[in-house]
Amino acid sequence: MTETHSIQAKPPYGMIAILFIGAFVAILNETLLNVALPSIMKEFQVGPTEVQWLTTSYMLINGILIPASAFLIQRFTNRTLFISAMALFTIGTVLASFSPTFSVLVAARMIQASGSAVMMPLLMNIMLVSFPIEKRGTAMGFFGLVMVVAPALGPTLSGYIVEHYSWRTLFDIVIPFGILTLLYSVFRLKNLTPQREIKLDVLSIILSSAGFGGLLYGFSIAGDKGWGDPFVYGTIIIGAISLTWMIFRQFKLEEPILEFRIFKYPMFALSQTIAIVLAIALFSAMILLPIYVQNIRGFTPIEAGLLMLPGALVMGLMSPITGRLFDKYGPKKLAVTGLSITIITSFMFSRLDMEIAFSSLVILFAIRALGMSMVFMPIMTNGLNELPAKFYPHGTAMNNTMQQVAGAIGSALLISIMNARAESKAIELSEEAMASSTGLSEDELAMLQMQIENEATLNGINFAFFTSTFIIMLALILTIFMRRITAEDAKKSEANNPSEEPQFDSSTKS
To answer: Which stretches are transmembrane (predicted)?
Structure first.
């Protein structure tokens, strides 16, 4: 029997709206603590290494559960899955707000992450089921608004709150949204996604956790500890071996937890490759700019957050517009235009100096964000459109997993490039200064050393931006091979991949 994934005659806008709110709050929470970490260190008397676990543990749980989301979305109804995820997220938020010790706070963050990890793949899957191909661009554009604005608001919002209130307020303001979203979903959420009785391969889950978790953790600490640290390369090696084993195992299973055969669809494979390249390059601004404005120029964390806020708002406002343009013109024209803008602005960021005005940085970052907004969602949507409906859960899980891994790799790569360049430049400047530093006082020598460090770091930042410019050029070259996936293409894919008829539970209408 073939599986009939019927697109909804009338998309359930009210239901999708409540899913958007839940996803927005969950994504916002990922970056909400970044600025608050120093305050938490002071209250619980922990060091930088320990406090980093508040973000690392959240990322690791996401890396472990997102690949498994394909199994969860197929095995359980979207109603059951969303209510469970939102309940876990809300419980974790309440526990974090009242956490008496640092270990309880870390545990609370992990509970939060276990709920939020499945929300993005679930929401993307519902969007694909609810809208026909010719309208998906617009729908996914609004979805992109959630993806972009929420993480960008985090640092700015937390900077203001931490300056005026306790860091616990960050969780307090999230709790009402979590409770209201949970209550609404209990009474009004319906089932849209097909459900199948599939078996869970425990070994695949273990290998996936070790593989993706190992890679994410290894790359995330590489920028701090260095590539030569045994724990860094040991974790990455274990992750790579586990992931390779896991991939080969999926090809032998009748019901893989994550279907890697979806990469045989050329536009999906191409979209994932471009998205990975872009995610790596994206971190050149998300990581390097705060270092530049805070460590070198002396701006406050709030000012650093405000620097990126207009860019995030531009991306958010452009997402629905880009979606409509995608429905009309397809992905290629948008991607070429957007990548060209991103390449030019990235090159301009590689020429930073000590005099550039704050307002100029804001405008340049906003223009770069405009370019990025024209690329991510159209490319991702076009790739997912090529997949047969039965592969939607695997496609959304793979997309979100690749973004997590690419983000970790991008962070480690660009930080390493910046540090290596800064170290070599510092040695060069120190040797030049030695010849003219005779007769200087201790204060003058200390000031000279600080100038050398700042100039070397600035040189490293510029070189990392310059490197990211060439990375984005690679994405531009890849877009040459992109073609638009039409409804007719999707029908052909569906006809060539019959599957079992979906089943829904008895609570479909409630």
So the answer is: 12-33, 53-73, 80-98, 110-129, 141-161, 167-186, 198-219, 231-248, 269-292, 304-322, 356-380, 463-482
Could you list the mean pLDDT of each consecutive 10-residue stretch along the chain, which spans 510 residues? 47 76 81 76 79 78 82 85 92 93 92 87 82 79 73 72 83 90 85 74 87 83 78 90 92 86 91 86 74 81 77 83 87 91 92 89 91 86 87 86 79 81 84 66 70 86 91 91 78 63 40
Give the CB-side neighbour count of residue 458, counting CA atoms within 13 A: 18
Please state the pTM of the whole predicted model: 0.78
pLDDT at 295: 79
Residue 193 contacts residue 73 (beta carbons within 8 Å): yes
CATH superfamily of 10-198: MFS general substrate transporter like domains (1.20.1250.20)
pLDDT score of 89: 93
CATH class, 262-496 region: mainly alpha
Tokens describing residue 277: 């390249």
d(CA 365, CA 367): 5
- Asked whether the beta carbons of 400 and 206 are under 8 A apart, the reply is no
Where do the structural domains in the chain lie, given as residue ranges? 10-198, 199-254, 262-496
Rounded to whole angstroms, the maximal C-alpha distance in the chain is: 88
Write out the DSSP string of 388-438. -GGGHHHHHHHHHHHHHHHHHHHHHHHHHHHHHHHHHHHHHHHHHHHTT-T
Give the number of other Cβ atoms within 10 Å of residue 110's Cβ. 16
Neighbours of 87 (CB within 10 A): 16
Phi, psi (5° rounding) for residue 171?
-85, -35
Residue owning tokens 């790799």: 409
Show the tokens assigned to 171.
Answer: 């969780």
Domains 10-198 and 262-496 share a fold: yes
The number of beta carbons lying within 10 Å of the beta carbon of residue 412 is: 22
Name residue, tokens 């939607």.
392
